[in-house]
Amino acid sequence: MEKLWTVVRFPNGSWSYGGKPTDPDYEECEIWQIEATSAEKAVKKAQAKRSRDRKKSASTDVA
């Protein structure tokens, strides 16, 4: 069964999960809410989404 996970990427590049998106510890982080069956899968999905989003923004910046 899937549940909603909070996944964060810290400025130093490390990834974590859990807590609330409004957690003060996540103030300087990139934050995603991801549906997945496990925390590890949620982190993998967030990493893939970040990669796709960065590629999209890079291709639109080259105009």
Describe the structure concisely.
Helix content is 37%, strand content 27%. It is built from one helix and three strands.
Task: Characterise the protein shown here.
This protein has a three-stranded antiparallel β-sheet with strand order 2-1-3. The model has no long low-confidence stretch (mean pLDDT 93). The protein contains one helix and three strands. It is an alpha+beta fold and 63 residues long.
Features:
37% helix, 63 residues, single chain
Number of strands: 3
Describe the largest sheet. Answer: 3 strands, antiparallel
Rg, Cα atoms, Å = 13 Å
Number of helices: 1
Proportion of β residues? 25-35%
Spatial strand order of the main sheet? 2-1-3
Order of helices and strands: EEEH
Output the structural class. alpha+beta
Anisotropy-based shape = globular
Terminal-residue CA separation = 43 Å
Summarize the helices and strands and which ones pair or pack:
Elements: E1 3-9, E2 15-17, E3 30-36, H1 39-61
Antiparallel strand pairs: 1-2, 1-3
